[in-house]
Amino acid sequence: MKGWLLHHRQAAALAARRLAATPLNTLLGALVLGIALALPAGGEMLLANFQRLAQRVAATPQISVFMALDAAKGDVADVESRLRRHAQTREVRLVRRDDTLKRFKESEGLAEVIENLPRNPFPDAFVVVPRDEAPAALEAMRDEFAKYPRVEHVQLDSAWVKKLDALLRLTRLAVALLAAVLGVALVAVTFNTIRLQILTQRDEMEVSRLLGATDAYIRRPFLYFGALQGLAGGLVAWLAVLGATFLLRGPVGEVARLYGIEFSMHILPFPDTALLFGLAALLGWLGAWLSLSRHLAK
Amino acid sequence: MIRFDRVGKRYPGGIAALAELTFAVESGEMIVLSGHSGAGKSTLLKLIPAIERPTQGAVVVNGQNVAALKRAAVPYLRRNIGMIFQDQKLLFDRSVFDNVMLPLAIAGVALRDAGRRVRAALDKVGLLERERAMPVALSGGEQQRLAIARAVVARPAILVADEPTAHLDDATAADIAAMFHAFNQVGVTVLVATHHEALFAPYMTRRVVLSRGRIAQ
Ligand SMILES: Nc1ncnc2c1ncn2[C@@H]1O[C@H](COP(=O)(O)OP(=O)(O)O)[C@@H](O)[C@H]1O
Ligand SMILES: [Mg+2]
Questions:
Q1: I need a surface site. Which of A28, A42, A226, A227 has the fewest CB within 10 A?
Q2: Which is more confident, A121 or B118?
């Protein structure tokens, strides 16, 4: 156990020394890996922010309840009180048909059309904000409200939330695919780096083997080398994404404000950051392992 | 301790380097292996730590048939055998100290203990003052002593040396021979292939002469 720990410590130290011995190669390697990793990591950062923004904008789905055109004042009052008493409604707002008409008259272009109508074409309506936002709950409420007396039509305003959700899922898939492709690239780059390393360490490997080194012993410093280079690439990617976040923060906030939303970009969330470094190290390790296996099999 | 039983070795596509070789080495012996160039001395020595495998027969080291040893077990066999190679196989990008440290690092000996043992081994071959030097800075005789220090640092029970005095002047070669005698005196079983038979003659327990892959006498 002690010998095992010692071997790992020595292998890690040797790998670090080899990285430090060729600073230019190490830096270039980290840059190549970092740029490859920065693309999916940046995509993930944008996605996380987009999701927060989407939640901000479309957080509360609404249910519109339209009364029949000829519904009496009493009917409207009756439905209003039912809606207000309902356990699942958070907010109920009555939009009177006269107000709707007035709003349309004020809007350019439509004013003339509206003016010429024989009577008010708009019904009284309620905008209901539900407590439970789950799609099933919303649909249940829609069906229930539709049965209220003199209610003509109930509309769920969740269609575009669904569209947004589908878009987010698609984007997430694209980021995952990008990560997979660039992950393969990372393994390939490490594979080649280690292959070149093996050429320069040939004597040492041969002598070590003659003196009783196991395959694991010979492999270990290279595995650490691959993992450390992967981690360095991860760091470069993380810094690049961090820089991009701060560069985008101002302009994005400004655009959001134009839409009346107070929004500030966040950096890559912690779980994604951990995943970035973990995967970078793991893929570097894998590339080294494949390279060594090919060599040791000879 | 070491037993060759009707051993044959044929290199791929080559002639038989060894044939019908049967002999045994007892613990504590010092065997001198001689014979013309190409007689099969190096091949014979390489069979002991399983650097080469026989194509026929059995090579038994410490009760283990090395010829049938699994690949994964070979490293542990080698750790118990000190080897001095014909071409030395020193690492020229590492200091004298680090070269001797290598077998102990491989065996996982704790650092402080290892440092002490490296210095003890360097002291035995008279290289303690040069521990920080790089191997290129050493003379031929010093390089050979470095190879010996590396071979004995892990305190193997068997020492196998292939032409350890080649290219050395007689005085230096005599020093090396005396060094092997000293190791043999403390119980190490020694096999040396050499052309400097006269230098080793006073110390050896037995001579084995090879001729075209067979024992000549
Ligand atoms: N790796 C090898 N491949 C093919 N033939 C070899 C190899 N090593 C040695 N031989 C041949 O085996 C025979 C014995 O060689 P070797 O054991 O080196 O003899 P010695 O050490 O006594 O000079 C020689 O004919 C040599 O050419
Ligand atoms: Mg030879």
A1: A28
A2: B118
Contact B85 A210 (CB under 8 A): yes
User: For residue A119, which of A104, A96, A101, A99 has the smallest C-alpha distance?
Assistant: A101
Q: Is B136 on the interface with A (CB under 8 A)?
A: no
Domains and CATH numbers, chain A: 2-57+161-296 (no CATH), 63-156 (3.30.70.3040)
Residue ranges of domains in chain B, CATH in brackets: 28-53+70-215 (3.40.50.300)
Q: State if residue B40 touches ligand 1 by the CB under 6 angstroms criterion.
A: yes
Cβ separation of A212 and B83 shorter than 8 Å? no
How far apart are the CA of B51 and the centre of ligand 1, in A?
13
- Rounded to an integer, the average pLDDT of B188-195 is 96
| The predicted structure's pLDDT at residue A133 | 76
Q: What is the pLDDT of residue B111?
A: 84
Task: Kindly report the pTM of this predicted structure.
Answer: 0.76
Give the list of residues 6+ apart from residue B78 with CB closer than 8 angstroms, or none: A210, A211, A212, B49, B50
Mutation choice for B interface testing from A203, A207, A218, A220 by most B CBs within 10 A: A207
Alpha-carbon gap, residue A151 to A167, rounded angstroms: 34
Q: Which residues pair with B5 in a beta bridge?
A: B58
C-beta atoms of B106 and A212 within 8 A: yes
